[in-house]
Amino acid sequence: MKKTDLFVPGRLCLFGEHSDWAGEYRQTDRSVLSGKCIVAGTDQGVYATAEPAEEVFFLSQILENGSPGRESSYPSSFASLAEVAAAAVFDSYAAGTAAEVIRKYPGLGLKLEVTSRDLPLKKGLSSSAAMCVLVARAFNRVHQLNLSVEEEMEFAYRGELLTGSLCGRMDQACAYGRKTVLLTFDGNRMTAETVINTSPLYFLIVDLRANKNTRRILKDLNSSFKNENQLIRKALGEENHRITSAARRALENGDTIQIGRLMTEAQKIFDEMVVPSCPSELTAPRLHEILQHEAAVEYALGGKGVGSQGDGTAQFICRGPEERDQLATALESSAGVICYNLTL
Question: 0.70 cut: is pTM over it?
Answer without folding.
Answer: yes
